[in-house]
Structure formats: structure tokens, C-alpha cells
Batch of 3 targets.
Target 1
Amino acid sequence: MSNARSIATTDSRDDGAARPSHANAERRYENRAGWAMLAPACILLLLFIGIPVLLAFGLAFTNARTISPNPARFIGFDNFTRMFSDPTFWYALRNVAVFAVVVVPVQAGLGLLLAVLINKQVRSSVFFRTVYFLPVVTSMVVVSLLWMFIYQNDGMLNQVLAKLTFGHWQSVDWLNDPRTAMGAIIVMSIWQAVGQHMLIWLSGLQTIPGELYEAAQIDGCSPWQQFASVTWPGLRSTRNMILITITIAAMSLFTQINVMTQGGPRDATTTVVFEAVRSGFQQQEMGYASAITLVFFLIILIITSIQRRLTRER
């Protein structure tokens, strides 16, 4: 009898020792499978983001050119000294700042307004979602070319304004006037991307429980009070993401400028990214262009870090 008990005790101990080892083996297998699935994304990030960033950082301190028989030579901080003394760089930085200050709140606000309006389960809500989102899926080059025709002297905008003023409107060449060129780019950019942020706001709105609105109605809250007390707090994570993504997109303004104005007139629409591309590919000064992109990266990093700190949940 005692022998049987000792055998049973030994078997139970063996089973107890086997279970942790089996669990550890399963855990190691799951870790290997997870890393295997993550490896392709890591490799792509390394090839297309990590290595180019390191190359740009290294080239920023050289006089490298796109096509040159002479090898790149280390020149220290000469590219940065030239950049900070170049008025075109400061014009580009100012234009980007103006663009971001206007586009970020207006685009986010219009997207939220449209999302709230079509959040109601009405028959035509799907139609309006499609209409508002259509410019987003259209190529930015196509949209820019379309708006170039709208902004011409004899374009649709001037014709509509002339009819509304009964012929008293004098045509304006919107993209060739330094006073109106950046404003025209801003209007077109807001129109093109507001549908994307509308859908992001809409996805956030649909995560808010309906019981909260019912409780607010029972308490006698007005629609504005419901928005301020229920909707806006419930969109905390959504608005933080939208704020950061719109800011980065606004600071990276390039395609519209490249297609519509080429940085003109008189650098009124030059942006930092456009100046970097123009320096690197048109003027073939890759070292100087790398210095611009490196400073621009640090600026965006600082701005987004400040935004994350100000909007983090306390």
C-alpha cells in the first residue's frame, strides 16, 4: 500500500515538472511564430525607413552631389550654416507654419462636423459618406490639375464670382498672385482631405455607447450639452490621433506645390519638403538636401512630442 502511494506521489511530481516545461516550450514556439510574422515588416521598415534615415544623416555633413565624378567629402556643419542663412529656407518654414496653423483646426473641425451630421442612421448617410470620401481616393496629382483649371483667369471660380456679382468681379490669377497663392492651396487641400478625417471621426463616434446619450436626454441636456459632455470626451483618443496625423501631413506639404505652383510666385508657396526635393534632384545637391530633411525631421519630432505631451490622458 505504501509502495503504491509512493509511486503515485512520484508520478504526480513528474507530471507537475512536465507541465511547466511543456508550457515553456509552447511559449517559445509562440514567440518564434510571432517574430517570424513580424520579420517581413521589420525588414521593410529597415530597408525603406531605417537605412535611408541613416544615409540622410550621414550625407547631411558632406558635399555629396547626385551626379559627380568627385567622391563626397566631409564638410562638417557647412550645409546647416548655409541653410540657416538662406532666406528661401525661412520662407519655406513660414509657409509650412501658416499652412499647418490654418489647415489643422479647419480640416479637423469640418471633418468632425460632417461626421456628426452623417452619424445619424438615415437613408442617405451612405451616399454622403461616399461623396465626401471621393476626393480622398482620387490621386492628388489629378486633384491638383483639376483645381489649376478652376483657379485660372478664365476658370470656373472667376466665372462663378463674376455671375454672383453681376459682372463686377475682376478676374484673379489665384496661383500667380503672392497674396492669394497659398490661400488657394489651403482651400484645395482642406477640400481634398476632409473626407478622410470625417471617416476617422465617424469611427470614433460609433464607439461611444448610446446609453450615455439616452442618460443625457433623460437629464434634460441640450444637443450642445450632449456634445460637450458625452461626444467630445468620448473622442479623446480619436482626436489625438487626428491632430498628430493632420499636423504631420500639413508639415509635409509637397505634391500640391510641385504640380500647381512650383514654389512660386516669389517663393510664396515654397515648402520645406519642396525645397529639399528641388535642392536634391534639380540642383543635385544631395548633401544640402539631406541637411534640410534632417532639420525638418527634428522639427516634426519636436512638434509631435509636444502634442502628445499636451494631449496625453491624465
Target 2
Amino acid sequence: MKFAALLALSATLSFAADHPDTTGWKDLFATDLSNAVSPGSWAFTHGELVAKDHDTLWTRDSYGDVILDLEFKVAKESNSGVFLRSGDIKNVLSALEIQVHDSADGSKYGMVAAIYDAMPPTKKMAKPVGEWNHFTITCQGSKVSVLFNGELVIDADLNNWPDAKKNPDGTPNKFSVALKDFARSGPIGFQGLHGKAQAPVWYRNVKIKVLK
């Protein structure tokens, strides 16, 4: 019985590490970006979403409990991010950011797949510069998870961040509002060209599923 239970657990964990079949899911952005806020700085080229400058691309709609599935590719020194549930699109620090980077920026938790300035990924799963990576980001209530190239690297409960400017491990962060008090619904955004290098980032196959 113990062996059977172990097999069942193993199967569950294996399934949890699979990126979903997104057939039938909604595109986060229309190809003409008509459902985006001020999309002039971004464009689809050959099915790939690319920024022309530093402006963030925001959805017009707000999203709460969702699964967001996407691929991204970076250049050397690329620095971008996926913003979730923004409380104010004029203030990026009002949103959780899943970091997109070729390696890391100056923040203690600024590496690719981190919850920016709040939680590092458990493993390094990034592919080399110029190759496509895969994120599946799930937000449900206070829980946020990131599946990165087939590995669960973030499994967070925002309720574990009860204090402003402080992470559960005691390190400081930049957020003037405790993460447990962040908005649970808001626009999703992609950060434009960022950092000194202003290096490009490419996104494709960006799909979303709203959870009930």
C-alpha cells in the first residue's frame, strides 16, 4: 500500500510539473492590440510581441484568479517582467512582477522567474540567450505559482508577507504595501525596454484562462 501511495504521489507531482494544453484558451492581447492600454510602443511581428521603448503594455481588462501561459526570449542584458493584478498601472510597484531577464538585475531577488524583490526561484531553469522559455503563472486567491520550463520554481502564499518593505526571510523589499494587502484583481502588464542596455524581449503564445 505504501508503494502504491508513493506511485500515486509521484504521478501527481509529475502532472503538476506539466505546462497546460492551452487549446481553446483566450489570447491575452489581440493581434492589433485593440484590448491594450496605449499600445503604441508595442507590436506583433511574425506572431511575436515586441516592445519599441520602455513603456509597459497593459491589458484594458482586469484579471484576478487566472492561469497565464506564455513563452519569452531574451537578448543579452534584457530586463523585463510580467506584472500581475496591478493596483495602479501608473505605479508598477503596486503589482506583483515575475521577473524576465537574461540572468539578474541589481535587486537581491531580481533573477529570472523571481517574484521581483520578494522571492527567488527555487531552481535555475533559464535557457541560453536567444532560446524560447516557457512560463505558466497561476494566481488563485493569495497563492501564486510559477512553472518555468517544466519545473515549479515559485510556490508562494502572499499572506506570508504581512509587513510592508519586508520579506518573510527578513530581507527588505521596495513595497510600501504588504504583499498580503496587494490587489487581488487588476490589469496584467508586460514591462518594456528596461535597464541600461535597453535590450529587447520577445513574447509569444500568450494565453490566459480565468479560474472560477
Target 3
Amino acid sequence: MRLKNIDEIELIKQLTFNLETDESFLKHIGDDAAVIKFPEKHLLLFTSDMLIEGVHFDLKTASWGAVGHKALARNVSDIAAMGGVPKYATVSLGLPKNYNLKNIKTLYSGIKKTARKFRVLIAGGDVSSSKKLIINIALIGLAKKAEITYRDTAKKGELIFVTGKLGGSIKGKHLSFTPRLKEARYLVEKFKPTSMIDLSDGLARDLGHIIGQSNVGARLYKENIPIAKESSSIKNALYDGEDFELLFTIEKKKADKLIKSWPKSFKLKVSEIGVIVDKKEGFYYQDRCGKKNKIKPKSKYRHFK
């Protein structure tokens, strides 16, 4: 069945059938807005991401379910990077009328599967006709005041760490990545990172956000940067983007304990890749011979270039 042959209300019913709720909902889907009880002693985190066909994914190579996963997982990664827990999402879809209902239901199933995995409750959303497939997800998370982590709080002398391996995400990882929520929870509960960000735009640009907003510089060590097997060079690790690993800084005195206590159950490494330096020193990586290579905080892709 094509979407042009189905009523909007019926489409919403089919997509949102059997959504999970919990006791925090006073009103779920069906009213003008969801009504949710807000827990005391928490801060509210709010993030939103949009995926557009032809910009963020290609349906010739990406499965419908994988696109749905990516749409929500990007948001979960943002909440994790701020030391929070994802809770409630709204899902809005722009849909070409000639698209098949079965494929759209598969897309939404990908969203729901990821929501169940990370205990996210879908609280509502919207559908509209459009020329291309558009998915916009807004996600609310909660963070304890003692655990929230920002980008602009790195200080000179602190060490720079990253989870996993970097580069080559276009070969598949950008559609199948796992948001590092468990790892982020471990970090904020045990080590309190001084700053943290998820790597959506690439190591160079995202570390550039941290040092730019913190008014410091950074020295990376080339041999310490974990390069994925899909990468062909250090440039891929620096600039490819969409790795969705965690990049964070911690006090030097905590580094050894972090490396020794890192849980094997996470099935990925944590790597010390550099140090925060004075702003005057700049932003660069250094090889074994001591040669300095300036890093430009940019990414391969720019929306409006």
C-alpha cells in the first residue's frame, strides 16, 4: 500500500501501535500533548536531530530499519555525552506520498527497537507529506546535578581520552553504531569527566569544540589515536565523523585508575590520546619523532558549503 492511499490518523495508529509507557505518564498519545511527571533534583536535557534522505542516508544502500535506528541513536548519544539518561522522545516524519507503507513501518520499527534497548519512551510526534523522507526526533533526558558534563570545562594539564576506534564510519558504522550510554554512565558515576562530547563531526572538529569553548589548546599523540580497520590514515580518524564515540577529559591523577578499572564487559577500549595545553600552544598532533602537525578543527562535510 502506498502512503497516498492511507489516512493520516490511521497511519499514526499503525506506526505507534503497542508503544510502551510507564507510571511517569499522566497522558500519552491521543491528547494535544503528552503529560509527564518530572522528578525532583534532576536537570532536564533536551536535544533534537533531523535526518534527511540524500543528506544523512541513501535508501539505495541503507536499510529502512537501520535508518530508524540511526535517527534515535544520534539523540541518545547526545544525552549520554552530557552525563544524562535518555527518557522521552517525539518522532516526526516527513513522508513522500508514493512511499510504501510497509517500508515506513519497518523504519518506525527500527526506532522502536532502539527505544526499547535504551529505555526511551515515545511520547508523540507528527507526520506530514514531503518530497524527501525526513525524520526529526526530539529527545528529553534527565541528569543529576552532580553528574551533568559540559564541553566548556576542560583545563590545562588534563588528559584527553576516547572510547573505541575512529574513522571509516561511512563503510557501515554510521548506520549501526551503539550509543555509548553504558560507558558514559560509568564515567560520570566513577570518574566525573571534566568535559565530554560525542564524536558526531569527527575528532578534529569535536575536540575543537571542547578546546574552543574552554579557551585552551590540545596536543594529541599520533600513535595513541585508535584507528578503525575501515580507516586508511590518521586523516580518516581526525575528520571522517559519525563515529559516535565518547571524547572526554579527566584529571591526570585519575588516568591510571580509569585504564585499569575499565570494564571488559564494554567490549571496547578506552585510549589516552593527548593532553590539554595552553591556548597559545595551539591544536596539533605529534609523532614519535616529535614533529608537530597542526590540526584544523573542521569536518569533511558541511551542510551549506
